[in-house]
Fold each of these.
Amino acid sequence: MCIFCDIVKGNIPAYKLYEDEDVLAFLDISQVTKGHTLIIPKKHYDNFLNCDEIILKKLTQTAQKLGNHIMKKTGANGMHLLSNANEAAGQSVPHVHLHLIPRWSAQDACVISFKESDKQDMEALHALLKMD
Ligand code: AMP
Ligand code: ZN
């Protein structure tokens, strides 16, 4: 059984911030920073890679509206919009969700760092990944 489907059904409580016919947003139980929020579709999809595109659009529209609202209410200086797909990317709940993570400074408890790995053959990579 899916824990987020249980929240949608009302079987598990949640601090709901926004709800409409397709979308639900609630506070993450583990507040990485103050106001950390999850936005989910009411219908179950595993992750953003296989989510219906209209629903994904509604999730991102909600993320923009709610993100601005949370910025205003908390006085945050910045915000992450993040969605993990599959275990390899750190997804622990297999029901698509967007994280909104407000930020105040680089010293916040949230650590997202981009480090360059091995040098890539950019010509070959471009040829491989360019969409026709
Ligand atoms: P991810 O690791 O990207 O799949 O994120 C899953 C998130 O769901 C984590 O940040 C958890 O803290 C959060 N979470 C798990 N169970 C609950 C719950 N019952 N209510 C609110 N947030 C939850
Ligand atoms: Zn689910």
Note: The longest helix spans residues 53-74.
Amino acid sequence: MNSMEKRLNIGVLVSGSGSNLQSIIDHRESGLLDVNIRVVISNNPDAYALERSKKHEIPSVVIRHSDFRDREDFDRKVIEVLKDYAVELVVLSGFMRVITPAFLHAFPMKIMNIHPALLPAFPGVHAQQRAVEYGVKFSGCTVHFVDEGVDTGPIIIQSVVPVYDDDTEESLAARILKEEHRIYPRAIQFYAEGRIGVTGRKVRIRDSDRTCESALHNPPLAGF
Ligand code: GRF
């Protein structure tokens, strides 16, 4: 980046462990992700994600949803804090609250989420368990922009993992989480580079290589 160019300011919203936050911090620190992590906001005062932000000297703010009359009031406070920190892109990272239209209007096509399934399959909660129960042979994760639906917004990047016969919810979740840690920073960096264009539901990444030409099979075709 040219020294005159300004880094993108991001704000990360968390509720729990924050392993995706950690991956974003690690990519930032290794220079692969060229953003300022301005603030981490948690609705849960006990979220381990808060320890991670403290350790890396990133400002954090706890906004307890139980302190607010309704979702709108809570979101108004979150928006206020994000604006105070001049946040330009909001990154939902295991944030367990449904956001209101007021939030979407404050940050139109500027809110990203990660979901542990290949959307539009298995939106909502318990995505990994439902993938195992359904018997799909592949699942994965999806980074998408947030719209008014639940996990329905335009898809930015997806990663595919196999589902094996002896998988449990936990073993599949662990395999998917590894990929989450790879694709979320990548999606944020695409955004920071100004390479993301959105037309309707479709996201185009400018100048990205077309390298996914071969098909995946599970179980493998093995010479068939
Ligand atoms: C991840 O599986 C993410 O896809 C989902 O919640 C989990 C959060 O994990 N939205 P972490 O808090 O980033 O460790």
Note: The two ends are 49 Å apart (CA to CA).
